[in-house]
Amino acid sequence: MKIFAVIPAYNEETTIVQVLQKTKPFVDQILVVNDGSSDQTAQRALVQGVRVITHSVNRGLGASLGTGFAAAQYLGADAVITLDADGQHDPAEIKKFIEAIEHGADVVIGSRMLTGFEGMPWYRQVAQILGNLVTFCLFGAWVTDSQSGFRAFTRFALEKIQIKTNRMEVSSEIIAETKRHKLNLVEVPIKAIYTDYSLSKGQSFFVGLKTLVKLVVRRINQ
């Protein structure tokens, strides 16, 4: 099975090299989607010998995942792992995702709730629970960590899932698409590595409200 990692990155020059070095042992190829970064993210990724696809302007997480998924399929990936470029995820846990796929999962979500939100600040916990509730209320799909960026998809799943949103709302959209196409979704427990840097990357309250509005629009147009 040919395993690709898709890593969206926007101004992640301080962490991208370490993330790539830790990810390489667990996948066959890495695609970094440089989402209009104004720093050295792309250059530092290229030095690591990975493929870099660059958006000329910042388009958002959803657009970056869409670009990465399309490229991975074109290059012959059998499965795709997504993880964040800020160092929040432990690539050594990729083995859990691959094992779940080998046992029949189409989509695998890494859940921080299954480890008790260990180390997660309370306000992040509240935001996560609200994200789960919104996803369930709008799309009728329940998972314990709807906003997790650590995921895996089979090629079959990627051929079914249609990403229409450009930004953070893509996390709920993926869950909705998984349910719509009756894909086999499995959650695996993961730990999250929180630093001042990774915590600074979260959504603000107002960005969260914009995300909610876009999800409502996505639901209406479904």
UniProtKB/TrEMBL annotation:
CDD domains attached to this UniProt entry: DPM_DPG-synthase_like (cd04179)
InterPro entries (UniProt xref): Glyco_trans_2-like, Glycosyltransferase_2, Nucleotide-diphossugar_trans
Pfam family, one: Glycos_transf_2
KW Transferase (keyword) present: yes
GO MF term list: transferase activity
Entry keyword set: Transferase
Domain Glycosyltransferase 2-like: 6-161
The protein's name: Glycosyl transferase family 2
